[in-house]
Amino acid sequence: MAADKITPDDIEGKLRELRGEVDLYADEARSHALSVGVAVVAGAVVFAFWLGRRRGRRRSTVVEIRRS
């Protein structure tokens, strides 16, 4: 078997090909991660608002004025 020599151009071409595929998957994953991040932040804001309202209701004082 005669082995073909691998040249630096062959290696560079293969690395460019692989990098193109990786960039494609990275862009797709980045968009999904951004969507999940926005949803998590929105959920945290709503949760904090809900806890604040609940605490405000518990700590509010009710004053009853009676006239005789």
Please summarize what this structure is.
With 68 residues, the protein is mostly helical. The protein is 76% helix and 0% strand.
Helix-strand layout with pairing:
Blueprint: H1 8-59
Please tag this protein with its features.
single chain; 68 residues; mainly alpha; 0% strand
Describe the structure.
- By secondary structure, the protein is mainly alpha-helical.
- The protein contains 1 helix and no strands.
- It has one helix at 8-59.
- The longest helix is centred in the middle third of the chain and has 52 residues, at 8-59.
Helix content: over 70%
Helix count, DSSP H or I runs of 4 or more residues = 1
Task: Report the order of strands and helices.
Answer: H
* Major beta sheet summary: none
What structural category characterises the helix and strand content? mainly alpha
Weakly predicted, low-confidence segments: none
Number of strands: 0
